[in-house]
Design goal:
This protein is an alpha+beta fold. The protein contains nine helices and twelve strands. It is extended and about 85 Å long.
C-alpha cells in the first residue's frame, strides 16, 4: 500500500531537485524546464520565487540563492553553496541520525529502503556519534504497530476492537484501510469506517485487537484523506460549543486545546471551544476543579453538577463495612 504524499512533501522534493537541474542548464526556457519537471509554468515560477528566500543562515546578501531572468529564460547566478559536498558538525550529524531513525519508525513510509540507505551512510560518516545512546520509538507498542502495518499492506479490510476515549467506550467496527501516518507523537490508521460511513482516524495504541478479513479493502470513491496540516482534531460548527470561565491556574488549556475565542476579563478569561463529545468534556472539566467554571451549554452544566453531587454523596455515605479493630478485617 503506497503512502499518500502531501503537497508540501511534493514541493520540497521539487525544490531540492530544482537548483542542480538549473545549474546544469543555464539560460533554459521556463516552459522547457516546466515540461521536464512535470509542473505548470505558473507552479515553476512560484517555486523559483520561493528559492529566492532560501539559502544559508544569516539570510543576507551572498547567503541566499539568486537567479537571473532574461525574457522567458532563467539562470542560477548564486547557488549558496548547494553544489558543495555536505559537511556536518557533530550536532548536525546526530540530529540527522535521530531524524532518520524516527522516519524509519514511521508507519506507511513507502521509501523505507532509501531511508535505511541514507541512514547507513550518515551513521558511517558520523562514526562514534552513531552509537550514541539515543532510542527512537513511536509511542505505541512496536509489535502492535508492526502487525497493523503488515495488515494494512495486505490490502484487506480489518475488523477492529477500538477504544474511543471521547466517549469512554470500546466498539467493534469493520474498516477499509487507506493509509498509516504519524501526527505529532502518535501513529494512526486512517480508514473508511463502515459503521460511521465516513473516513476516520484510529490511534494505533487504542486498537485493542484486530482481525484481517478475507475481503479486499475498498474505500468508496468519496473517501477523502483528512488534511493533517492543522493536526488531527479540526473543530467545525457542527460540534458542541462549550463556554468556560477560566482562572489563572487553568489558562494552560488554551495552549493545549483548540479554542475559538478568548476574552480577557479582570481576574479570569472567558473561553469558548468546540468538543467532539459532551461526555468527554464533562470528565475533562470536572478534573480541573475550581480553576474552571462551565457556563454553557446548559446540558453540560447539569451533567457536571450531577457528577459533583454524586462524588460528594460518596464522601458523605457511611462505610458499608467497618474494619474490626481486633482482627483488622
Amino acid at each position: 500500500m503506497s503512502t499518500l504524499r502531501t503537497p508540501s512533501a511534493d514541493r520540497l522534493g521539487r525544490l531540492l531537485n530544482l537548483v542542480p537541474y538549473l545549474l546544469a542548464r543555464p539560460g533554459i526556457r521556463v516552459a522547457e524546464a516546466a515540461a521536464d519537471l512535470a509542473v505548470t509554468e505558473r507552479q515553476l515560477r512560484e517555486d523559483l520565487e520561493l528559492l529566492w528566500v532560501c539559502g544559508l543562515p544569516g539570510y543576507g546578501p551572498g547567503d541566499l540563492i539568486d537567479m537571473a531572468f532574461d525574457g522567458d529564460t532563467v539562470t542560477i547566478s548564486h547557488d549558496a553553496g548547494i553544489d558543495k559536498p555536505l559537511r556536518l558538525n557533530p550536532d548536525e550529524a546526530l540530529a540527522l541520525v535521530v531524524a532518520l531513525r524516527m522516519l524509519a519508525e514511521t508507519p506507511g513510509i513507502g521509501s523505507r529502503d532509501a531511508i535505511e540507505r541514507a541512514l547507513a551512510k550518515i551513521e558511517s560518516a558520523a562514526g562514534d556519534l552513531a552509537g550514541a545512546p539515543v532510542a527512537v520509538k513511536l509511542p505505541a507498542n512496536q509489535e502492535r504497530l508492526t502487525a497493523v502495518r503488515a495488515a494494512v499492506d495486505s490490502g484487506n479490510a480489518l475488523r477492529l476492537t477500538y477504544y474511543t476515549a471521547a466517549r469512554d467506550e470500546t466498539t467493534e467496527r469493520v474498516v477499509d484501510p487507506m493509509r498509516m501516518l504519524t501526527v505529532g507523537t502518535f501513529a494512526y490508521l486512517e480508514a473508511w469506517c463502515r459503521r460511521a460511513e465516513a473516513t476516520r482516524m484510529f490511534r494505533i495504541d487504542r486498537i485493542d485487537a484486530f482481525t484481517v478479513l478475507d475481503e479486499p479493502s475498498r474505500p468508496p470513491v468519496g473517501a477523502v484523506p483528512h488534511d493533517m496540516s492543522d493536526g488531527v482534531f479540526r473543530p467545525g460548527p457542527e460540534l458542541p460549543l462549550v463556554t468556560l470561565r477560566v482562572s489563572r491556574g487553568g489558562r494552560w488549556i488554551t495552549e493545549y486545546y483548540p479554542v475559538e475565542d478568548v476574552v480577557e476579563e479582570p481576574g479570569e478569561w472567558l473561553v469558548t471551544m468546540r468538543v467532539t463529545d459532551l461526555g468527554w468534556a464533562q470528565r475533562f472539566l470536572v478534573g480541573l476543579g475550581r480553576d474552571v467554571t462551565v457556563t454553557g451549554p446548559p446540558e453540560l452544566v447539569e451533567q457536571i453538577r450531577a457528577a459533583a453531587h454524586a462524588a460528594l454523596d460518596q464522601y458523605a455515605a457511611p462505610h458499608a463495612l467497618e474494619a474490626d479493630p481486633a482482627t483488622g478485617r
